Structures are given as C-alpha cells and as structure tokens.
Predict the structure.
Amino acid sequence: MMHIDQANSHITIQDLGRTGVAHLGVPIGGAIDRQALTLANRLVANPDNCAALEFSAGEFTIRFEIDTWVALCGGHFDASISNRPLWNGWRGKVNKGESLYIRGPKQGMYGYLAIMGGIDCETVLKGKGTDITNEFGGHHGRYLEAGDRLNIGVTALGNFSRPIGAVQRANDGILRALPGPELALFSQFSKKAFWHTSWKVSNQSNRMGTRLDGQPLSTETDISLRSHGVMPGVVQVPPNGQPIVLMADAQTTGGYPRIACVIAADLWKVAQTRPRQALIFQHISPSQAQSANYEWQQYHYRLARAMDGS
Amino acid sequence: MVPESIIYPLGENALVLDPAPRAAIDYSLQSKLCWIADSSRNLAGVLNAVPGMNNLTLYFDNPERLKSGEAILQQLWDEAEQHSLPQRNIDIPVIYGGEYGPDIDNVANAHQLSVDAVISLHSSARYRVFFIGFQPGFAYLDGLPTSLHTPRLSIPRQQVPAGSIGIGGEQTGIYPSQSPGGWQLIGQTNLKLFNPLQRSPNLLQPGDIVTFVPVRSFTS
C-alpha cells in the first residue's frame, strides 16, 4: 500500500494504453511518454505494461507501507526518499514507512514513477490507465489527491544489490515523420513550411494533442474529408492551418487532413517538449522508421546487459 | 459489381481501406466495412479496427504486418459481399426544447418552422448508426432531414450536459458525456450512452436504427 500525503501536481495512473476498444470511441490512452514508462518499469524488473504514476509540473509526497524499489524516469524531476536523493533515470530502495518527495520538472514535461510490482488498480476497458476526459480507469477516473491510498501489485521483493541508473536519450526536438495521406493536397508553400520551418509548442497542448504554432498551412483547394480513424502520432491540420500532433488521449476518429505521422520512436519527444519550445519535422522513409525502432531496441538491449545480475 | 478497393498506409503501423472516397455515402458499404472490422479485430497483430465514414483503419502492432495486412484486408473485402450487420431498433426518449434543448428556437427560426414542426421532423425520421467515434459512445447518425440542416453555434459551449441531442450541419447526434460542444441543442435523453463498467459499454452500435421519441418527462 502507498499513501498520497500531499499532491500538488496532476498525477494519474498510466500503463501502455488500451487495445481493441478504439472502435467504441475509447481513446488509446496510457502513458504519453511510453519510452519513459517502459524504462521505469524495466529498472524495477516489471513487465513493460505495469501501471505506474505519470505526473506533470508540481510537487507531491508518497508514503510507503512496505519495503520496495521505485524508479524515476521521463522529465527531469528532483526527488528524495527520506533525505537520500533519487536521481532521474535511477531506481532506489524505499523502506517501509519512508516518504518519497518529488518536485519539478527542470526539463521536460512528464515524469514517471514505477513501483516494483506495479500499481494494482481495476482494469477498465482493457487498460488500467486514467482517462481524465471521460472519467474512467486509474483511480476513480481522476487525478490523485492527498489522502488517496493505492495498492501495489504483489511480487517477490526483487533481490537488487544496488541502485542503478540509465542514461535517458536526449530530446533533440527532431520528429522523424512519414508523409500523411493528404500531404500531396497541401500547397507547395505549405509543404515547404511544414518540413523546413520550426514549430513552437502551444500552451493549449494536453494529453489529447500537442498544438503547434507557426506558418499557417493550407491545402491547394478546399477539401472536405469524411471522418476516419486517427491515432497518436497523426499530425492533423485544422482550418486555422496550425498542426496538431495527436497524443495518447486523442479522439478515435477525425476529419481534418492528415499531413504526416510522427513515428512511434520519436513521439515521446513531442510529449516532453514544453510550451514555446521548438520542434521540427524530418521527412523519412518507412525503412528509416524501421532503423529508428531498432535504435530503441539497441538501447534496451544495452540496458538489459548492464542490469544483468544487478 | 464490386468497386475497386483502395488500401493505403497511415504511418508505420496502420492501413486504411477507403473503397469509394468520392461516391455518395452508402450504408451497404458501411455494413461491409463494419463486418470486415469485426472479422479482423481478433487476427494476430491487429490492435484496433476502426470504421470511419465509409472507410476503415486497421492498426497493427508492428510495421512488418502491413504487407500481410494488406492481403488480409483485400481478402476480407472480397468476402464481405455476403455479410451485413444486425439491425436493431433503438428508441431514444427525448424531452425537446426548454432547458433541455436551449437552441430549438434557433433551429426553428433558421428554417421558418414552428418548434412543434422541428420536433415532428426530428422525431419522425429513422437514423442509421454508421460508426462510433470522436468520444466513447458517440454515434455518427445518418438520416437528418435536409430541412433541419443547421449550422453549428458560432461560439461553442464550454459544457454540454451528457445526453444532449444536437444538430451540427448535416448531422444529429447525442453527447454521451459532458463535454464542450458547438452543436445546436434541441433536447436531452436520460439514457446512458456510455458506461465503461459494462461489458458492452455503448448503447449504440453500427447498424442500429435509431428513433427519437418525444416525451414530456422521464418517468420510470
């Protein structure tokens, strides 16, 4: 059991999202930075899809009723267990009765705290993640509050000999993307602007989508599209010409032109970019997208080797 | 005669089946696409099968699935001819106008109709559910009489109550949960359109034929 003693941050429970329910209008959901959640889970030997805490700017304190290990990943948050620091990208031991204090971020947007065994909450529509918009999943479909108590999954206490840390990959703000089905319908000027100018993240962004500010884009002629399935990574251009990168909680269907799709390997960068910071799109081929996935496989392979016997 | 099928990729992991993007919206095509979606949902590597308006998007777990996925889609498309969706009749009780439908006068004025005529037109039509999207449980309905097509509000509302029935352009629909919205609100139902804790969380599904039934109060 863990207790939220103080919560001054938007804290939700997230896993890797829901599959098989998008046709019911239910968003994919799950961690907005899937890479960070996966890393945090691996550092404490959890399956990748274990439910963990996702949090944004602010501070909070959690008290643990059991001995366990936790890992902190994603945006750069400051954390301490009693008075011992818990570094970003590291796992650390928590003793029964100790409190973990987290504050930030200094860099990035979203932090993740994985707890050995994962957070044990009800599975709703094939996932444990909190859907804030539609008020289900996680802990009563809402942000965590002071006084909330969460169960931790039962697991044999990992026999870790020491804390261990991972070097998290740097966010270079370059989004590798495949052309979208409607790219060709945009004006020559708009295509150039999309791929060759930088885009500032708008403060209107949230877990549903990251809105970008820059040179307005338009199609060559007015087009009216029928609603079609959309998913995280799809870049839509609404009538105001300012693109939106769809994120974890995106609606399941939409009708705006799809100018591009950010590849899965780079979507975490969108999640971790702050308002007014810049992003650029890089036009790549499907085989380059495969290589980008391979970069992540190598990263996790090296991490697994480094953790062998730890 | 089977129209030529058009399949194209969306990003690394998805395929779109869009057989007739320029033809008029067609229910028999939608029925085929929904049958293909239901048939493909349990195939290995298919994460989601999402019907849109006369199109279908399949999401796979891995880019390497796209090639075989295209062949499977083509095969299902060829088989789809013999299949159609179950058709259920669903009645939706509605209190029209007043506090439940604050924009019904707008709609009446826009078409120089009386409020009673709006109610009668809206409730005598039969609406077909094409697909569920946008929000959990939100049904895209076809069948709004042309004489009720009304532009959206110029300034969307911050909060539309769950169960509100609105008109937006050529469409009518029911808001399953409280959300912002720009449709002209003409009434409200007390039925729950989306319940995440139920095995079938949505009241409506593709193929359903929806009728709005005017009521004075929600008894029972």
Summary: Chain B has four helices and 13 strands. Chain B touches chain A through 43 residues (CB under 8 Å). The longest strand of chain B covers residues 89-96.
